[in-house]
Amino acid sequence: MMRSMVRGKCVSTESTSLLWRVHRRRNLLTGEWVLVSPHRTQRPWQGQIEKNEAASLPTHDPSCYLCPGNARAGGVKNPNYAETFVFDNDFAALRLESSTQTLQHGLLQAESESGLCRVICYSPAHHLTLGQMTLTGIRAVIDTWASQYETLGDRPDIHAVTIFENRGAMMGASSPHPHGQVWANQTIPNELAREVAFQDAHFADVGRCLLCDYVEIELERRERVVVENEHFLAVVPFWATWPFETLVLPKSHQPTVSTLNSEGRDGFAAILKAINKRYDALFAVTFPYTMGLHQLPTDGIERAGFHMHAHFYPPLLRSATVRKFMVGYEMLAGPQRDITPEIAAERLRTAG
Ligand code: H2U
Ligand code: ZN
What we know:
The structure is a single chain. This protein has helices at about 15, 135-155, 190-205, 210-220, 260-280, 330, 340-350; strands at about 5, 10, 25, 35, 85-90, 100-105, 110, 115-120, 160-165, 180-185, 225-230, 230-235, 245-250, 290-295, 310-315, 315-320, 320-325, 335. By secondary structure, the protein is of the alpha+beta class. The chain has a domain at about 25-40 and about 205-350: HIT family, subunit A. A hairpin with a 6-residue loop joins strand 3 (about 25) and strand 4. The radius of gyration is 21 Å and the shape is globular. It starts with a strand and ends with a helix. The structure holds 5,6-dihydrouridine-5'-monophosphate (H2U) and zinc ion (ZN). 5,6-dihydrouridine-5'-monophosphate binds next to loops.
């Protein structure tokens, strides 16, 4: 039975129906609390309605910077690639710097940062999304993620590799062509650093991996499971912030995509396809999201409790055109959600 501390008393969540009242839940990976207001889902909406993005796209778009054979914004021509294609971002936010510099003026602190940014085209087919690709095609993307992590992580000046995808104009994607990005840093970025600290702390406390323990809870309780296969599990995490946020985890302890064997990678491809299918079916639209991987930092420090995973952060709340805004209370106080993670999981489970 689930137990939590409420004003100093240890209470079971079931016996108080806590999860149907206004309550807050703790994010195991960041320590942050999210406010849950289950009664609020019926409030009327007269705010911004997003455009429903056009569904039909050509297989090859002569004006697309990412399609095979086309020239990119900087003038370089893409090869006629047949599977995945990786290139150095023409407008990279990070650059490889040969020297480091720090600045300290009293309280003010700054330091140089070195790194590099790449773009990964998932497929030559302009009209596809990751979830619409074949399992073989998705597996090729996973193998590309693994090789990018390995080659970049092997560099002595790279200590973290962040792989992500912004999908849909609502999430700032610059093109519908299926693609993602890799940013490799000399330092460990904030989100990964927080997750590393919480996973390290749990391992130091109990000698077990935090996310292995979490997988066990979710498989036992099953109320937040969206889809699973032999190797992977997708859940709406107990502490989800975005309405239909999901966390995709290997069931076995894996620190990186590279450590997954061939069957594990096929399982990852299958779950990515399955979760995308449910997302796209939920509001009958190509679901916008930011999706990304958290993998072991590549600074050579041993972290036995680090478990790789993917986060999906989709902004849609009620329909293809009504999104969740992280404003007001979220910006000034903390994250808040209306629909409970359990209901979101149920809706995704049955979608499509
Ligand atoms: P987003 O769709 O998530 O913005 O990613 C596309 C990236 O592709 C973006 O970072 C890069 C942009 O800088 N890009 C190029 O490097 N060359 C181009 O010709 C177009 C876009
Ligand atoms: Zn294209």
